[in-house]
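Subject: design request, 248 residues
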């Protein structure tokens, strides 16, 4: 994911780009804001920009180097995705158990429709959470140095769904970070993250998208006339998931 592929959010892209360009990337960054505004895409674009070997003159990742190609296939060796899952029949469930579904999710729903995630992992009536076994797995993975890159990046989706015990383990990682590890937390509801974690993050607030940005995307991807797209966008409440009533 390159910054140029993300509609709107220009000021946020600029902030994230500057953090990387000036080598002032916080150890724990929280991208916080309502569902459907493109937060996961911003996190992915930032991770790719961190790892890209040839930035473009206009401040984007190149899209062509080995690191970019790995990112674009959801398979970068120093990027770890962590996200809520259901237990299923496993004793110690970890996010990696659901990597095929996760890659499908990023492909199908870059704006991260939670209902779609529920259906991909066949959650039924279960509420997906981030288990303590996932926190243990992260600690284990992060104890190794980065394979190729200067930084390992953990992109955690919905840290508000960390179980308390998981959050306490993660807290230790955030308090005493490995020098080469960056956490990017992507939250729909930052106020519900454990306060001890929340207070240790640098927060970037993403706002609801303007109607024009949603409408332009509908014109580009659905072939809808601009005036009709504006009417749909007006009802979407600033969410790219909201225009057809699929708000999650
Ligand atoms: Zn690149």
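Subject: RE: design request

Done. Sequence follows.
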């Amino acid at each position: 994911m390159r910054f140029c592929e993300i509609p709107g959010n220009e000021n946020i892209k600029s902030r994230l780009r500057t953090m990387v360009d000036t080598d002032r990337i916080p150890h724990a960054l929280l991208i916080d804001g309502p569902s459907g505004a493109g937060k996961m895409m911003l996190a992915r674009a930032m991770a790719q920009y961190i790892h890209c070997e040839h930035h473009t003159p206009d401040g984007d990742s190149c899209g062509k180097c080995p690191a970019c190609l790995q990112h674009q296939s959801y398979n970068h060796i120093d990027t770890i995705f962590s996200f809520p899952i259901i237990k299923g029949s496993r004793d110690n469930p970890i996010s990696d158990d659901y990597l095929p579904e996760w890659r499908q999710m990023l492909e199908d729903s870059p704006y991260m429709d939670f209902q779609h995630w529920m259906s991909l992992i066949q959650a039924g009536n279960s509420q997906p959470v981030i288990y303590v076994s996932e926190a243990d797995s992260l600690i284990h993975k992060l104890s190794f140095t980065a394979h190729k890159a200067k930084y390992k990046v953990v992109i955690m989706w919905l840290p508000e769904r960390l179980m308390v015990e998981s959050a306490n383990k993660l807290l230790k990682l955030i308090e005493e970070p490995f020098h080469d590890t960056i956490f990017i937390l992507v939250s729909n509801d930052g106020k519900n993250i454990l306060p001890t974690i929340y207070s240790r993050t640098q927060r970037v607030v993403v706002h609801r998208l303007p109607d024009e940005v949603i409408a332009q995307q509908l014109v580009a991807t659905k072939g809808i006339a601009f005036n009709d797209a504006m009417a749909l966008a007006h009802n979407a409440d600033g969410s790219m998931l909201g225009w057809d009533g699929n708000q999650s």
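Residues 39-51 form the longest helix (13 residues).
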